[in-house]
Amino acid sequence: MTNAPAILLVDDDSSLLRLLTLRLESEGYAVTSVNSGSTALKALSTEHFALVLSDLRMPGLDGLSLFDEISRRHPGMPVIIMTAHGSIPDAVAATQRGVVGFLTKPLNHDELRQALHDAISHAHVPHQGDWRQAIVSRSPAMADVLDQAYRIAQRDVSVLISGASGTGKELLADAIHRASPRADKPFIAINCGALPEHLLESELFGHSKGAFTGAVTENQGLFRAADGGTLFLDEIGDMPMPLQVKLLRALQERQVRPVGSSRSIPINVRVLSATHRDLPKAMADGSFREDLYYRLNVVNLTLPGLRERAEDIPLLARHVLQQCAARQGIEVTRFSDDAMQALLTAMWPGNVRQLVNVVEQCVALTQAPVINAALVEQALAQDQNHWPTLTEARDQVERQYLIRVLRMTEGQVTRAAELAGRNRTDFYKLLKKHDLSAASVAAPVAITHSTAN
């Protein structure tokens, strides 16, 4: 099969390698088998694989160490770990570090088939090139968005990217540009809420010399600077109404008129825009033009919040840690298990941007190669850039309380409800509200998979 998903199989047991290779090939996979972690890394450097299936206990580079190297060199590559020494501690360590699956030997054929299917289908969009190189994810929710983004990148239409602050809207816009036929032309971004109206108009459309006090030279403007490429209008919902009219005219006529000039200039620009605001509500209250909305919103992409892609938290945290450690020249290798658990259970009102900030603080402050939970909690508490609302703070305290009481009772809901002073029905409603289950809290291995089903 020329389009068969390619799997890299790693195990030091030669008989198992042969057996699994035959089994996987019969399922339609293209299998490359190697007998060590170091050989696996060499194979990954020369070939493309959809997934790595590796033994845990191997001489030299073991399964988790191999996973660490794969994550550093090939972010987003899904890895499934196999072991004959199955245990909860192994599973917790593997999944909290970002492994997508954990299977015990002897392997159950149906479980193996399902694990491979889930991991490959939830992995990043398998398109050629490095168009999404800055986006680190293995979340099904993000995979859907990225799949749509790649497809619409090929079509020269306007795209409106929606999502809460900190979800990575500019990164997605840049990825769309790099996947488009305009990739070799400029990508220029501007925050429409960061400048007063007269400066924003000049930045977008340009101005002629002497157009206003201080205009000592001509400014071509960002529309012309992005000619042939992509202009990204971030926080478009904050654009003043008079400028909305001028932007609509520029998009309709495909030409701009610099401030202070009587001459219109043709433009060839694809416009991507983004907002955290509810634009339909803004149209209803008269603060955003309906005709401009439909001009910008030919295609809409909505980025999920970090809590909606919780399986990405370990992957993102490790990726940012490695980048920060390398940039700062600090010997930091990983998060402790309880530190990763603190990251997994945080509410993240500031989304990916907040996670990056917290990890950067941890790397800067740590005095050991392993970041502990106390440092993570300190960074979360000091992160003033994403101060939660009263409701968010109350929810976060409530969530942490539920996790703690379930751990105290080892997942016994009846006992936990008694300690919380609630009946079982009310307690289950609270668990549902916070997307928790007794099993996921009592056995943290399930947490990184809770949103994948």
UniProtKB/TrEMBL annotation:
Keywords: ATP-binding, DNA-binding, Nucleotide-binding, Phosphoprotein, Transcription, Transcription regulation, Two-component regulatory system. GO terms for molecular function: ATP binding; DNA binding. InterPro entries: AAA+_ATPase, AAA_lid_NorR, CheY-like_superfamily, Homeodomain-like_sf, P-loop_NTPase, Sig_transdc_resp-reg_receiver, Sigma_54_int, Sigma_54_int_dom_ATP-bd_2. One of its GO terms (biological process) is phosphorelay signal transduction system. The keyword Nucleus does not apply. CDD domains: AAA. Residues 135-364 form the Sigma-54 factor interaction domain. Transmembrane segments: none annotated. The modification 4-aspartylphosphate is found at residue 55. It comes from the Bacteria. It holds the Pfam family Response_reg. Residues 6-120 form the Response regulatory domain. This is Sigma 54-interacting transcriptional regulator. It comes from Salinispirillum sp. LH 10-3-1.
